[in-house]
Specification:
By secondary structure, this protein is mostly helical. About 60% of the residues lie in helices and about 0% in strands.
């Protein structure tokens, strides 16, 4: 059912805020993307860290059901709440460990 134009949610580039936040939060499942955010100093910005906290709503089942890879995505959201992790993700070794953990978890799901 279509909404009345006055009640419609505003669109940003043709997408709803939820769609944009969903796409962004799913990118967080990629350890190299987290590394990129750290390299660009986004993880040092208190406003950005507050935005990551706001995105915790994706942990609720009614929103988590839209995630393509809920395990890694929600794990990254959880880790990004920790200042120590936000400092460590800039290191390639940390990225490598996250990738290895993801591969092990994925292989375990198939057994």
């Amino acid at each position: 059912m279509a909404q009345a134009p006055e009640a419609a949610e505003p669109l940003y580039g043709g997408y709803s805020r939820f769609e944009l936040e969903l796409e962004f939060v799913q990118c967080l499942a990629n350890p190299w993307y987290l590394n990129h955010l750290a390299a660009q100093k986004h993880l040092d910005n208190p406003d950005f860290v507050a935005y990551l906290d706001y995105l915790q709503y994706f942990r609720q089942p009614k929103y988590a059901k839209y995630l393509t890879h809920p395990g890694p995505t929600l794990r990254a959201l959880q880790l990004l709440q920790q200042e120590h992790f936000r400092r460590e993700i800039i290191m390639p070794d940390t990225v490598g460990r996250m990738i290895e953990e993801g591969v092990r978890a994925s292989a375990g799901d198939r057994s």
